[in-house]
Amino acid sequence: MANPAGGHVERQLILRGGEVQIGMKLSTTGIRSTFDGNTSCGGALIAPTHVLTTAACTTYEEPNVVSVGTHYINGTMDGKKIKIVMVKNHTDFDQTSGPTTLPS
């Protein structure tokens, strides 16, 4: 939001929200290139062995590890770290075409 006087304007964008307690959102995943590295993308655990994310998360940095139920964006403090064994993008995904919405 622009401030006519210049400077930063602070806004509360989430009403009556709060920080989620550690260990409460176990379907949240962080996709990383190393076990103790930074999360480069997020995803959702949709089955015991499947994470759903965007194809862009698999394009620019090699996804090697998923941290399931992690609260922190990096490190090994929490979450279960699991080696990724296979990545499969949508058959219509074309990384050279830029951001798109695939037909349903």
From TrEMBL:
Top-level division of the source organism's lineage: Eukaryota
One GO-annotated biological process of the protein: proteolysis
Keyword terms: Virulence
Pfam family name, one: Trypsin
Species per Swiss-Prot/TrEMBL record: Phytophthora nicotianae (Potato buckeye rot agent)
UniProt-recorded name of the protein: Peptidase S1 domain-containing protein
Domain named Peptidase S1: residues: 34-96
A molecular function GO annotation: serine-type endopeptidase activity
